[in-house]
Amino acid sequence: KGKNMEKINNKEVKENSKLMFRPEFIPFYPQIKRQYHLTFSEALVYSFIKFYSSSMFSEFCLTNKQIGEILGRSVDTISKSISKLSKLGLIEVTRTIKAGGGQKRYIRINL
């Protein structure tokens, strides 16, 4: 029984995590879009990071590819959006070196 229950729990966790990254609702901040002259994609990326940072995660560390898949935008669009949001001071981007090599990026909302 223990192994079957463990398989069920693991399956539930996997299914729930898929749903978590397929949001049906992301708050949108039109005042931020207007005030900072953001494109729709830039405002959407900001809104997504703000929503997930404030509601589910203490730190936001998804990759551009992951964000792009969730929002239906290209990796290039996500990358440019994050760069612009950072330059405007709306977000802060930091990186740490991973033990096995490579980097992990963290994004924090400033506004």
What does this 3D model show about the protein?
By secondary structure, this protein is an alpha+beta fold. It is 56% helix and 13% strand. It contains five helices and two strands. It has helices at residues 2-20, 30-35, 40-55, 64-71, 75-87; strands spanning 91-97, 103-109. The mean pLDDT is 83.
Q: Topology, pairings included?
A:
Layout: H1 2-20, H2 30-35, H3 40-55, H4 64-71, H5 75-87, E1 91-97, E2 103-109
Catalogue the unreliable spans.
none
Question: Percent of residues in beta strands?
Answer: 5-15%
**Oligomeric state as shown:** single chain
Gap between N and C termini, in Å?
49 Å
Radius of gyration over alpha carbons?
A: 16 Å
Helix/strand-derived class?
alpha+beta
Overall mean pLDDT score? Answer: 83
Number of helices: 5
Secondary structure: helix percent: 55-70%
Strands, count: 2
| Strand order of the biggest β-sheet | 1-2
Largest sheet: 2 strands, antiparallel
Shape, per Cα inertia axes:
globular
Give me the strand/helix succession: HHHHHEE
